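Handoff note, outgoing to incoming analyst
You'll be picking up this chain. Sequence as last confirmed:
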Amino acid sequence: MTIDECSATEVALWQISKVLDFVAGMMQDAFDNYPGLGGVQLDEHFGQPYQLGTDLVATVNDAASHILEKVSGKVSLAPVSPPQASLLNYNMDWARWATEDIGFHEYVPKIYRDLASTFDYDLIQIIGQVGKDKLIPGIRCIGSGANTPYDVLSDMMSRCEAEGLGHSVWYSKCFTLLYPDHVHGGAQ
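Most recent structure output, in case you need it:
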């Protein structure tokens, strides 16, 4: 069969497969060329925005499986949280992926909140939906909007630790420029 004999759907699926092979190839090249590399990460941009349709969950599920089958190193996922927002906005069912353990090394949901109480609420909801295995909450310090005050950031980090979880703070400038004294044994 030639490309001219394929339906539009068959052509689209073939093109998606080629794109996924390209992405997986780049990720695998990183592991092959940098032996000390600890892992690579996909985020919500790996999903399909709802504007393209809300019937794409199966397509995104298949895409995640395709990538994970082709990459030999550790692949983590940094999705939007809570899981329902990721599902509705990006057709990404990462709660199911986590509970079924489809192969991601870890999940680093972006619980980017400016209030510790909102963060606590969302963290408990996420733990209830996906459990704690492979969960590393993402905390926003610097990004869009005002910087997160250190006392709020500290409360969020402490909340993660109280749940027996690590955390990932976005991004390194938080501790290298904004709050360097808190990293180097200074003020609390």
